[in-house]
Predict the structure of Ferric uptake regulation protein.
Amino acid sequence: MSIQHQLERADLLCKQRGVRFTPTRRNVFTLIASFQGAVSAYDLLDKLKELEPNAKPPTVYRALDFLLTQGFIHKVESLNAFLFCEHFDEDHPMQLLICNGCGLVVELHDAAIHQAFEQQAKLNGFAIISQSIEAHGQCQQCQKIAPNTQHQVPS
C-alpha cells in the first residue's frame, strides 16, 4: 500500500476520532512510513529538519507520542526505536522479531501468543496495561551470511 494511501487512511481516522493531524504529525507519519524497519527519534529528527528546519527533539517526540496513541506506529522498546504499523485501523495483538545482524524488524499478529501471555498474567494475578513482546535473533539472510554466530542484543 502506498504511503499516500496510508496517509489518507490516517487522516480519515483522525477526523473520525476528533484529533488533529497537524502538518508536523503528518510529516513524521510520512517519514516513518518511508523507513524499512525501525527508526530512532533522532534519525527522524534529521529527516524532519529537511522539511521543517526549526524542528527540535521535542517536536519529534510530541509527534511520536501522538502517532503511538493513535496506533499508527509501535515502539520497539529494546532498540528505543519506532516502527510503522500498516494495520493501524484494526485492533491487533503484536509481537516483534528483531534481527541483531541487520536490524530487520518483523511485526507478527499472533492471537494465540497474545492470549497465552494474557492467561499467564491472569494466573499470576497481574493486570496488563500495555504489552511489548520482542524476540532477538537472526533473520534468514543473516543466518546465511554468518551461521551459528551469536549477536548481542543492542543496548
The helical segments are 3-17, 23-34, 41-51, 57-69, 111-123, 140-145. The CA atoms of residues 58 and 98 lie 27 Å apart.
